[in-house]
Amino acid sequence: ETARNAKKPSGDLQQALEDFYPKRTLPLQLSLIYLDTPANGLVLTSSIQAPGQFLSYGENDKEQAQLSIAGVILNDHGKTAATFRTGLSIKPSASNNGVIYNYPTPLKPGIYQVRVAGRDDRSGKVGSAMQWVVIPDLSVGQLLLSSLILGLENVPNVGDATRIQWS
Known about the structure:
With 167 residues, the chain is mainly β. It is built from 1 helix and 9 strands; from the N terminus they run αβββββββββ. The protein has a 4-stranded antiparallel β-sheet with strand order 4-3-6-7, covered by helices on one side. The longest helix has 8 residues, at 11-18. The chain is globular. The N and C termini lie far apart (47 Å).
């Protein structure tokens, strides 16, 4: 089954998507980014990372891990804007870096909550993550700022004065 033709996930994945707090037995990381693409307009990419050391690779760590991932994107009224579900086979060599799954979704401007859940099919470990994102209306033609990252670096003492350099 492809992610785009996803049916409602069953059992523990569905429960993890509906829970108020994230499950951490399988610690998932969720990262969201949106782009204004010429072909599809605004596209939100949900990136789900599962650390490899938490996945089961069978006896003697020689088999592929099987990871089921499900997600739902809700608008600010709690209505479903998109869903996805997929299964991944992960080689044991990925145990150091883990696996990242990206799912692109064309969306209209608005406020969304993305909820994802993953299950190691061999061990039954389940994890989930959730995050809010605001996708602005870029058609207004105004400069918008989504994030501001500041860094502070101490520069070694020069004489008696301590200098601080902003980057």
